[in-house]
Hints:
Elements: H1 14-23, H2 28-36, H3 41-46, H4 49-56, H5 60-82, H6 102-105, H7 113-119, E1 141-143, E2 161-165, H8 175-196, E3 200-204, E4 212-213, E5 216-217, H9 232-236, H10 240-244, H11 249-255, E6 260-265, E7 273-280, H12 284-287, E8 293-294, E9 297-300, E10 305-308, E11 312-317, E12 320-323, H13 327-332, H14 334-349, H15 359-368, E13 379-384, H16 396-399, E14 403-408, H17 413-416, H18 418-422, E15 428-432, H19 444-451, E16 457-461, H20 477-483, H21 485-499, E17 505-511, H22 517-530, E18 536-540, H23 543-553, H24 559-564, E19 566-568, H25 572-580, E20 591-594, E21 600-603, H26 605-609, E22 614-617, H27 627-642, H28 649-656, H29 667-678, E23 689-696, H30 702-712, E24 718-722, H31 728-740, E25 752-757, H32 761-778, E26 787-794, H33 798-804, E27 809-812, H34 818-834, H35 841-847, H36 852-866, H37 875-889, E28 895-896, H38 897-903, H39 914-921, H40 924-929, E29 930-934, E30 941-945, H41 948-958, H42 965-973, H43 976-980, H44 985-997, H45 1014-1023, H46 1025-1038, H47 1043-1055, H48 1059-1072, H49 1077-1097, H50 1109-1131, ...
Parallel strand pairs: 1-6, 2-3, 13-14, 13-17, 14-16, 15-16, 17-18, 18-19, 23-26, 23-27, 24-25, 25-26, 35-37
Antiparallel strand pairs: 3-7, 4-5, 6-7, 8-11, 9-10, 11-12, 20-21, 22-24, 28-30, 29-30, 31-32, 31-36, 33-34, 33-36, 34-35, 36-37
Helix pairs in contact: 1-2, 4-5, 15-25, 21-22, 29-30, 31-32, 34-35, 36-41, 37-41, 42-46, 45-46, 46-47, 47-48, 47-49, 48-49, 49-50, 49-51, 50-51, 51-55, 51-56, 55-56, 56-58, 59-61, 60-61, 62-63, 63-64
Amino acid sequence: MEKPEDSSIETWTESVVSNWLRSIGIKEAYIEKLHKEEVDGKILLELSEEFLKRETGMKSGPALLIIKKRDDLVHSQKAQKNKKPVHSHKQTTEKNDHGATAGDDDTITDIKEDIKDYLAVRKTKRDSKPRHFGKEGVDFIYVKNDVLLPESGVIDLINPCHEYKSFAIAAVLDRQKLQAKFMKEVLKFATGCMNIRTNGTIHFGIMDSREDRDGTKYAHGEIIGVPVEEKDMYTDALDYIEKSFKSDKELVRQCIHPPQFIQVVSSNSNVVHYVVEVDVEPSVSIVRNKVFSVRLPNFNVESNKVQLEKETIYRRVGSKTEPVDDLNEFYQQVRFRDTRREEAERSHTFTVPKLCQDLGKKLIMLMTSGKKIMDKDKWHILVTNRFQVKDLQCIDFLLNMNIFCVFDFDPDSMVSGLCHKYKKHHAVNLHFLQNYKIPSSMSIRDFESHLHLFDQTGWIFCNGRSDFKGNEPSCDEKTWVKTKRTLLKDCVSMICKDILPKGTFQVIFLLTSPVDTPFLNTFYEFVTDMQGHEDIICLAESEANFMKWQAFALQSCDMETVNNYSVVGMTISHINATLQSVQPVSTRATKRLPIYVKGECCLDPCEEEMRRSLEILSVNHCEETSPEFADSEQDKIEQQFYHGGKITWLNLWLADQKYVGEVIQRDAFHDVSKFVKDSPKWGLDQAPISCINIYHHPGSGGSTVARQVLWNNRKDFRSAVVNPSYPAPVIADDAIWLREYEEKDPQKCLPVLLLFEDCDQEYLYDVKNELEVAVNTKKIARGTLCFIMLCCQRCHNPEKMCKEAPLQNVAVTHKLSKQEKMKFSAKRQKLEKQFQPEFILTFVLMSEEFEGNKIAAYVKKFVTHLLQGIDHASVVTQLVRYVALLNTYVHNSFISRSHCEEVLALSIYVDRFRQHAFETSLSDQAKLVLIHLRDEKTHIECIRIIHPLVAKEILQQLLDDKQQQSDLALELLNNEALFEHRFGKYDYMKFLRDLFMRRCKIIKGDKHDSLFSPLIEHVADKECPDKAIELLKEAYKRFDKDAFFAQQLARLNYRHERFEEAEHWAEIAATKMPKNSYILDTRGQVYRWWFTAKCKAMDGVKKTPENTVDAVKTALKAIECFKACEEAAIADNETMNNAGFFGVVEVGCSLLKLISSLHVFSNRNDSKCVRYLQTDFVPDEIEKPWEQFHIEIKNLRSIMRKALEWISEDLSYFQTDLVPDDEKTFERTILNPRHWLVSKSSVYGQYFCNASRCDVQSHASLTPLMKQMMIYHHGGGNITTIFSHLTDQKDSEPVSHRLERIISFYPSNPKSANMPQGDIVNYIASHFALSCVSSQSSKLAAFQELQKLSLHFPKDRQRCLSNALFLHVLLWWPEEHDTEEEKEHKYETVLSAVEQLQRNYDKKLKDIPPRKKRIYTHFFLSNGVGFQKFVHKSKVEQITKHPSVSEKRLKWLSGEVWKMPEMSKLLRRVTGWTEDERVYLEGPKTGFRIQALNTSSVPHSNENVTFYLGFTLRGPVAYNITVRT
């Protein structure tokens, strides 16, 4: 077996190293420790004795053995390889300080020079400067392995000479030996300096020769350091002065300064070492006429005590200290040496001052990145320690900056430091380092929201917080390193690598107090994670503080870099004044808000910053902008807007102040302004929340109009832009706060104008609902306008939306009015004098009106001209293609600039050139079509094409014949640089996902509803379905095999009749999300479409039991899948998905059609098909072929009936006029589900009773089941289809005839017929429906008879159907002529039913907000008796006909319908009262609470009221609640 020694150490694995360690006798515990540390051969070669002792806890003996044996092995392998003998090299003995005995010298391994060369592969060592002579060492640091200048002799007597001692061995000796060795070197050196009259410093812990230790080659003057356990050992050693000098002891004491201990820092070691330095300063006033002789201490091993050597006079000769040979001559030169010293001291006193550095200019250059003004969107990170009291008065420059977070090392900062002062002016979030540890389940975006990172300044207490009641004390440096350094590292890493892209922020180290290790570690972490120093600035007033900082910084950066990015010597007050002169905000201005009594109040910035869900527009907005900033940026801001950028408040302010030209006010602006001005007109019918909608074509300036409205009304209303990333309850809370801020009376406040931009309708409903609840809770008086919701929505048919509600909606289109054309033409002429047309392209397009073919031709011509000569192969052009693809298909999409830089492979190391480097990397064409945007919250820059039409045209023209859109999309999907880039990842991933997944929806402003994303539909239609499928497959892989991508693949495949593939993907999706009803619906749809295709394939072919087996099997599989969908939907409390029930019925009807078409069942007069479906009968022809299906087919009637009943119940509970707008909607939206239910119920009944035959038969000959099926066939199978006869009267046959026919199928004496509960419900409902159209019909039962029949409903209300309870309420509602006793009895009966109805409703609604599933009102209370005391909703709607559903809904919600005179004639108002904002009906002795349909209409005080009564499956509801006068 080959021994480890036979192979090169470099090739050894961890196991081989372990085996070798065993072979040399190392303990197993140490071997296991090294194995865990993954020590292989390469690492073994670099090991030092120090590392082994520190990291493994190994004793000195085995550590020394490992190093010795390793070096011996390296030596032997090297020697064998070179085929030459090994030559020994003795260690240098000259100036050896490694101990008092020769035995100590032997502990250093004798390794051959060639082996040492092999091992000593090190980085180039950097030069370093020593501590300033005479300065304290506490604020100074050395970096390990840096090199000082060589030892020096006498220079000019004032500049010190230097002598180095490694002192490595002596430093670990006991106290007596160490002090003797230390003082021997100090006194020898000091005597030499004093006798020559020169200043000098002796350094212990600096290599004094080119020695090798631990297998490492050291340079002369290299900083190593020595361990110092007790500093007093060195200080007390100076007591040898009294023993070693016979005379002049006091003078010697004055010349030799106490030892200074300078810490040695190392990036890869936590062991603290020091360089011990002793300064010698022989001032002429002390040493005049003196010659010093000394007896040096020396430890004698034999006697084990310190002995003094003979008295000797020393002098400095060059870089050495040597005894004086010629004493006579030396004494004769004493006076000469004194004179030289005196002259040197005198000349040193009058040194020429240093040239004054322009620190102010340097500071400005660093803070502005070379610009005239600081970037107002740039984030700053502040690292600071304890502030001086005087400095706290000069922090205005900090208050005017965007501070992302502060790393504060002052534990008292919250009590008396910077945080205490800062939080008086800005809101802060107080954190500790551990708060920045992100949970594994949380995304970066969620983590940012959780800590409010971009909302308020994050204040991170890095070393405890003294006022905190929890367990967060400050700690000493060693404890901090052990407990908090890792937390600091993680915190800095997260900020630099996941939250803020490089170039968007600047780190400022403010050295206001002496710096310590934790503070310095922060610099190291930032330099490491930011990959350089260029965005890090150091500001220090004290040079001493800076020197320690500088010494530490030199570990990571060179001297020039550190000095270039540091400003040393400016006080905080000077920094404050200097930086305020270049900040975009001239003063710390206070924003002002309008108040109810027409004055103004000041807005506390802390309060404002805590309400980040609103961007509050103040009366004096932007007035704090400095004139310098306005002058320097005005052209850029104006050009950015007219080139296609979003309008900013600064645009409007600059226009108001005449810095730039006016912004055109379109006609829509005046329309919206009028709506806003007219809104706050008091009246009892005034709703507390008014809604105004601006519908606009994409890119037509709708957002500009909306913001102009806010700007021009900021003095009359409190105005704000809503940030839709916050949930509705937060928006409502902040809006209420804004309304009532600094107002005395909540009843007397200005309305708040809230701007919502491109928010989902559902979100707007949520906010409105929350605001209504808040207004009601505050008990604001009725008729008071509190909020105006200005909703700016992208839309492809704004004119149509405007016509639907002309008093609420305003359209902004590309088409210009005559007046607008004149304005645009004049403005265009002015701008073209100021800018090139291509740099104001969006405005040029606007002035051309975007008119159909005209603008299409204009854009095409422009893009063609623009792209001439473009390099199609360049990476910039590829980037433009990517952006064009996203902008064409994903609304409001963009790519962050850091993503672009990643694609362009830019490495920009100096921030001041960052923007320049990015822009110069773009081609001329890219510069014209790409516009730079900034995220309003994070200030992170992003890129998009100036207009969607331009993006679409660029995409078409940049794709050559060889490349199609699917190829480009696939390329984008697989671009690793974009996909894996960390910054802006959330937005990019969302846009990329939307590119493949988001369907078009009219309700969201799209032109049409689509089945797939526009890109997928384009590829499937214009290229080929195969490419669309392959594209989705790649997206499925890219997005971690997301179940929803598998669902889309299933849908796309079955739409193109690739059913095996569709089945495969549907099963994958269902396996991944087995409880998602929408995915289970898709699985059912696969089989439904497959079944339909199989039926279609049999058209024109005689259908037999044999050739229909496959189709029947597929249909039953579809029904099975839809049933699973039903179960999942019922179990899901968050949604109400009825797709499975619809699917069961549709497939069931199609299957019944197929069954009835078989020859064996084709005779219509034969009841064989019905017998097969309803009994045990099985025709011989199908018995064998369909053997596996019989049970399932015979269960079909029951399965379909349950589905129909579920749908009916859902429709009887809830309104259906809300179009679902969730991405998870099922395959097709049933536009009129009530009509669908009538149709399918009829088909269902037809197949199970042979309707054509039953219609001609006597009713007496029909079985009860056949009668039931005939009732279904004629539209009486459930309460929804029965009442649908009242709304659907287009049939030529009178409704009364249809209802009479339905009633005719019931027993003539229903009370004795023992009918099931469901049949009783349908029977009674049919009579109610008939009474609405023919109150004199002979088939209409007496009202009292129906009351008696209702007594057959179960006494236990929990067993009653909801429809039964609903009818029970109608039947037993008291009448005017009833006695008090009868009324009370009826109210008790009704109340018991209503209580159960409420419980059933709560269960049916699940956890869905009521506004999303609005209750359906079937009847209203009228003035008659019996049937006549109820009016069906269809009759009310005949009075309130409106041209559109949305306008009708608006009239109902606003309450306008109740003002119509016809209503008061048709309906009966009842009386009651309100108490604690609850409505009660007058009449019953016990309180009969009535639910208010519109809670905002309930008076806040206890009032007598009147209202209309509606009847729902929740119970009676109150409409139009009015206080009775």
